[in-house]
Protein 1
Amino acid sequence: MTPDPATRIAGQMHIATPRLETPFHPRLAALSRTNDWYSWAGCKAPHSIFDTELEYFCIRSQAALFDISPMVKYRISGPDAERCLNRLTLRDVRKLAAGRVHYTAWCDDHGHVLDDGTLFRLDYEDFRLCCQERHLPWLLDSAIGFSVSIEEETEAVAGLALQGPTSFSVLEAAGFAGVKALKPFQLAHFAHDGSEVTVSRTGFTGDLGYELFTSADKALSLWDRLWAAGEFFGLKAIGYDALNRARIEAGFIVATADFVTAEGALRADRLRMPDEVGLDWLVDTEKPFFNGRDAILRARKEKTLKHILVGLEIEGNIPAEHAIVYHRGKREAGLVTAAIWSPLAKRNIAIASLERPFGERVTDDLQVEIYAMRELQYSRLMKRAKIVPRPFVRLDRRTATPPGSF
Amino acid sequence: MTSFDAIVIGGGHNGLTAATLLAKSGRKVLLLEAVDAVGGALRGYEFHPGFRAGGLVHMLNRLNPEVAKLIGFGGALAGAAMLPTVALSAIGAPAVLRGAYGERIDGVTAAEAACFSELREKLLFQAGILKRFLKRRPPRIGGITAGDMATFASAGMGLIRNGREEARDFLRMLLMNVADVADEYLTDDRLKGLVAFDATLGIHLGPRSPTSLLGLYYRLTGEAGGAAGAQFMPGGGMGVLAAAFEKTAVSAGVTIRTGTTVTRILADRGMTTGVVLADGEEISAPIVVSAIHPQTTFLNLVDAAELGTGFLRAVKNIRSKGNVARLDLALDRPPEFKGLSSADHRGRLVIGRSIDHVENAFNPAKYGEFSEDPVMEITIPSLADPSLAPNGAATLSALVQFAPYQIREGWKAGKPRFQRNVLDVLERHAPGIGKSILGVSLMTPQDIETRYHMPGGHWHHGELQADQLFISRPVNDAAGYSTPLTGLYLASAGSHPGGGISGLPGLLAARHILSGDRR
């Protein structure tokens, strides 16, 4: 039956706002000087707020507030939640204590990475899975045979990342007593505005930092509480471009940027196993069965892994973003997926996906081909690249407990 | 904890076949059957005091000769009298197909008989091409063997042996609907109705649904007494066959435990280690052969934590809802169908008056309703096995469709109405039958599910359609009898080639296990 035109049009009003505004949008919009937005999982998210360069230094020298509400979030709970998640993900969920968080990834049956993300064990039978891509059908099918409930709570839960050396002081000043005891990857619940906020000592910057989650209706009061407390600790709102620089320094990868996810890939040769995107350390071969286990172990045994993810240090100071990596100047060996001049390391760094044996057995004589645009003319630069371990930057303050106070 | 070399779950004819072959290889084999007798769909039942049905299956048309030989049935199979198929007519005399699927036809014009003969020859030739794939394990994508290549080559050679035109025609017809093919060759509605019925019996397709010809090919890949398309009733009835399967297994050394329900197939990190029974007893074995429905196997018996999400998703999506109801009548005297000689009452009587009749019977099934004017195949089992009914009385068995597994009004309310529809149709073809009825048993697919432990009441253990055949039967990652779990094998009708009393899934599964390929 065709609904009458008025009903139909009323049902289409979402077209008027093609990008959803996050619960923090009123604050971000008020602060935004660059008015530079992009679409993150269908939400309006800032590339920058006032100046990417300065925003980056807020992460490293002060405190930065970044809206992570568009991050996809699933709530997984029930008596079988642990078993279900253990089958779903690569790491051993039995080792994740209540009140702890771990970084993990999950694969399809063929061992190809579907996504990576963080798993929060809010309580013994209550988990939150945060990730880049949407996976509800996969998660629901992963629940077949388990006593578990799975719900998407992306829009219901607002999230903020508070990162930087003074972030602890901001939280302390905002009255989150007890945050001091939080170790990295630990979480705790705090009262807020008649409701609750979950604070975890996690982040995507490799710096001291926290992530805060609360219900969407308490988002603005949470922002205001932090903002007021952060006045004398250099707290600034930042956009993704600054965060991206920090995450490259920390050596973190981003699904769809550094690798194509298994469900997103259109081309069969773009699929990647954990070992091909630097996530081999997540694969727990001792734990019970998990999705992709057989395929991953077979690929390891039969040495059929085709790619490898490496950190590169490149001579010069021109970021080599999306540059082709060559061996001996001729043979194509791979592609740079992310690159910046690192202000903290004072080095030109990159994350690259190489085709084995390059990056595995053959690691010498690599070069990247950078096309630098100089006044409407490309300069083709062949720069020597050296494979280096990630992270590129390691900060003691990230893990120091109690955290540094200002 | 006791241990065996192999455990077979399910005492149907496929489970018995697999168990027998494994035991013959010197392995210590245990067969577990949930109900109190083995035989599966060959198990008979009393449906009215003094009246028994021989089994869910009421005629043999595809028992594999090697399996027949295995159970000492080879001679009986070779010497069996082929039974006619009778295409009943609403208005006039029936058409009677004699020999193997109508080598000769009575009751039609000479011209029509010639047309049918041409169609029969064409279909048997094409089914013969497909048949070679039914007798071996389906190839594994990415792991094609020399044997697979040889089969492909021989199929190709077989195709072009009769000229390129024949090969082209095969490719043209393979995925056609049976109605178009019937219209191409035939004019007689009785014959058209018959092939339309045979192509769709047990399958959720109407004769005009694309690919419906596959069902007829499948029927014609069966054989009896060395003749493709033939059918027969073993002397003494279907119960004889169940006994033969059981006896062979026992004498091969298989330990059979009936009334024993398996509640878990044990597995750890990709390896099967045994089973757990309902009473908590654990039995270990490096090989577990599941000769029950693939969905029961993976959704109920194996812990979901030991299987991949993608695999379980595929298993869950296997379409396995039956469409066939089984009618048993206890009659005070043998029924008499209009225009039919008494000898031909021993045959298979089909009520499918025309393509339209079959198509119209199917239509409501798409919308969760049963047929108002159903189509059916009828046998009178007491003629072959008088012990099924008291002296002078008779039994009638009919497979009736379309009776979807789920109907909107629910079978509790719908069953009496459907039964009336079925009896009305019978009355039209055998006037007076209603008055001779002493007892009626009608099993809907739900009843069949309960009695025979077949999910969906589907005797093929999953729709026999293009997307669930060959390398996709029951699902790609468990085609070819191996499963993602090392040591766990499938051997039911849900595996290649499919259902019917052939014994092939059991035979091929056992051979695959014995070949030593553990995956």
Protein 2
Amino acid sequence: MRKTSLTTIHNIARKNDKVIFIGSDLGAGLLDDMKKELPKQFLMEGVSEQSIIGMSAGLAMEGFIPYVNTIATFITRRCFEQIAIDLCLHNLPVKLLANGGGAVYAPLGPTHLAIDDIGILRTLPNMTIVAPCDAVEINKLIIESILWPSPMYIRLGKGGDEIITNDDVDFKIGKALIKKEPHIGLFVTTGVMTQVALEACKILDKENIICGVMHMHTIKPIDGNSIKKYFPKVESVITIEEHSLIGGLGSAVLEFCSNELPQELHKISRIGIPDKFADQYGSQKTLLDHWNINSNEASNKMRKKLKLN
Amino acid sequence: MKIDERSKYLRKLIIKMVEVGNRGHIGSAMSLVEILRVLYDDFLSFRANVPNWPDRDRLILSKGHGCLALFSILADKEFFDKKELSTFCQPKSILGGHPEYGKVPGIEASTGALGHGLPIGVGVALAAKIQNKNHKIIVITGDGELNEGSNWEASMTASKHKLNNLCLMIDYNKIQSYGKTSEVLELEPLNDKLKSFGYQVLEADGHNLDQIQSCLYNFKHCKEKPTAIICHTVKGKGISMAENNPYWHHKSNLKESDYEEIYACLKFETLI
């Protein structure tokens, strides 16, 4: 997913000389081709994230379209004020390309785990938050993001994630995608948790418990129309997110329903990261299993909700 | 150093706003007046009736709390009607305690949280370089503001890209909110620090018009590096009880007798 996002940025930069890539201190050789081909559109500015956000704001004020890339936690935690004031208050079209959303950096410990990034940024007016599920979708997102007029946070997965997006899908920022039509239950997901939900559906399908998957690649603004359309049709809704249960997708869904669909609130359960820092290393998968974020837990929870145990 | 009639006039506009808003960063604004006056009277290219004129020079007041001084000169230059000054800090006013982009004509960036203006200015300057444009970018910071690490990050970037179109002007009145900069968090040796970060470093009496002009001339003709001008100023300049007094960094609820004293200092005959 990350590699595709960079390749796509290189491609759009060829066609649009206002597109500019700004990295902090990324891996050696990253986007070397772009650096050689488009040196004025490639910047690597060191471990100076706060300044980089301000600089990207200045470039955007002058008509450029900056894509700022570094590790998710270093953007969201360190630069909150810069994002709030320089980007969101000025409502500038800067894209924040965040590596390692969720538990991707499990072996590196809590300093590198972006378990709160969505919650942090969701509080900011004018901010758009997107978490694509695979390489095909990130490609579509980057292409569409060029004309997006506001700040955007793009949460990237690990890479090599199973491709579940068809090339011909009608991808639109802010519009949820129904990956599987629901019958009795519905999983609402974002990022690579959509793959987890589809796996859970396979388990449940075998038991003739037919559930669907609503992929919320855009968490903010949340697609209220899709929620209004599908939630009343099902008996149970479970949100799955690779994020703290505080402030992420599940919170956004609950907030929306609290305001707009209070009669649906009782249907909603949530799967996500508990309110604590990671206490073990391992891999993304082992850490997610440790937090009970996987297809087995999702299918069990759906069964329980539907009282089909 | 004595201030002349024009400087007194600009200060008069500031005090008028303080009266309306019943508050303001008086000390922080008074130290800025001559810096802004020289910039707008003699240096910056701008069109007040077309604030977004593409070829304008850009000025970012990073020490946003000094906005009273900026509002006074922008009104004087007719970026907006002087009547707006009489609405300072009122609910529907365009003029608040910090400057906001999109509300106030002539304001390039919303500032107030410190340490933001220089990184933004670096981006604006870099954009000009990439597009081969010749306009200049001025960023004015306070001295206490230089406590913020983001300024030093941005300085490294400015130096790396040889942004000779960028000028950092430091309103060095040597007093931040709590007290003396030398006691809160020492900046010295400031000149050497800035030099080591790659600036052409110049120093001026920040109330001496000729010295400020001379530094700006040197900035304009510097070929290969960003410029930093350390403007030695007096906090509260022009109002004797506010001069060098940290308690006048921000003031609210001034008494009538305070205003009388201020007017006396500035030799106001009548309020405009």
Protein 3
Amino acid sequence: MLVFTIKRILMVPILLLLVALFVFVLLNLSESDPVIMMLPSEYTQEDYDNMAERFGLDKPLMVQYFNWVADAAQGDFGTSFKTKAPVADDVVFRIPISIQLAFITTLIMVAAGIPLGVMCAVKQYSVFDSTVNILAKFMGSIPGFWLGLMLIMTFSIKLRMFPTYGTGTLKHWILPVVTLLLPFLANYVRQVRSAMLDCIRQDYVRTARSKGAKEGHVIYKEALKNALLPIITLTGGIFSTMIGGAVLVEKVFAIPGVGYKIVEAINNRDMPTLLACTMVLALFTIFVQLLIDLSYALVDPRIRGAFVGGKKRKKKLKLSVGAN
Amino acid sequence: MDAEAIALNAKIRKSRRNSQGMEVWNRLRTRPTAMVALTGVIFLVFLALFADLLIPYEMAIKQVAADKLMPPGSAGHLLGTDNFGRDILARIIHGSRTALEIGVISAGLSLFISTILACTGAMLGGMVDNLIMRVIDVISCIPGMVIALAICAALGNGIWQLIVALTFSGLPMHTKMVRSVALRVSKMDFVESAVALGAKPGYIMVRHLFPNLTSIMIINGTAQVSINIMMGATLGFIGLGVKAPTPEWGTMLASGLNFMMRNQYMVLVPGLVLAISALLINTLGDAMRDAFDPQLKGKA
């Protein structure tokens, strides 16, 4: 388990480097020259060269990449094309805001989604199941940003219950979290239900019932425990999509998070800021993926076994051969 | 062999040839929700194909200063006009063409590329497979929405740029999904016997892998179309969508934002149309999945 954890954690910086390279190349596909965009409409060749040198844009792409990595390792994520201020200062204070939005929503989604999904699976084809299913289908088809606008229109403008935008009090968070939550919760409930249905039909569940185990025990100890693995997987997948959705929710509700900055950076064609923000979101995703891989090992002893160090496994193998 | 036997033989062969498609259709036909969704989707496709016959394109881009911000139900403008005096109904109908164009082409392309990648990986295995999957792993660390945003930012505005962005953002998920099925199929007996008979990987891919992937491709493709229409509208909403006068639902929503207080229909109408289209396509996708594989029935 320890070896597995260390191996997995060592993968993170490598992944980040590759992600950075990918995004770096992607953003440089742009035809518009950032140097010209930063200069006033009339400029001399000398001005151009000076500006290019100041932002390191005169060097070849790969050199730019390695310079960026070297600086980023020291916490310097370059200078914004737009504000000419260090990018890191502008992005760092936004990270907690985005984390709050994404993680609060994920927590509520898991806390509400698993019980709902399990109840639907246990009472398949009941009125409750059908109602939840139809509701989920509707909610899953609504574009998140539009839902946000509709909520603002009803609850903020008409009923004046919540503020329209910004952060601060608890009231500010309710509409954004609901907006982000509903479409994802809808998909989550449907997938949890399906994972649970898979397990309920298994032989060991029937065996447990035939042995006279209580229904609660059968559902929560036998079925749910086995359904946990697929449920954990899909929680990770949904989290990654939700990070993307949060960009829009931050934009609609003017929450000063990383996502809001991304949209702003795109409109200004401010590549250093865009790169830094993308890296932050990639880091979120990688971190959650790491947690998920580790929790696999916690939940499933088979996976834990596969990552036992070589020596230990050989020892075990010998023991089992000896026993036979 | 007498004539009767030959006729019977031909009949059996014929019934076998179109069995899967017919079976799926027969299962689909008996479900009312599926038929409603199918009708809706066909209606949507007709709207997109024959938009010019229904309402001239000129109506969707013509700016009439006198007709600014007319509410729905006004004379000559069933759904009202926007802040430039353009007819909203015309923009919605012509916008359906943009939406379907973007959704269908990008979903098709991303399915096509990911199937080739996944099958090549699954067939050849070893280094090639490893390389493909590691690249996919790296890309899937970035949320699809953010990839699409970055590509759009780099390439600029326009339908083709949007299609490239959406194609790319769908790649990682499809490649992983198709690969898992391709791996399972490539271990089946008929593939192994084809290998034993000396068939080349390319031949096996076309002859044995692809036919077994059709159902998952149709199911995933339908889901991806609705995801991509939604994402295309989202990008349009941010201001990364198609170029200015082209009618597009997301851009319409964004332009309605400034008039949300008084003229709510400008936000309401495109959003509703978007949601209903997504609902129809999703429902059809779910029904098709049930029809293709009855064992999966009732699952999410």
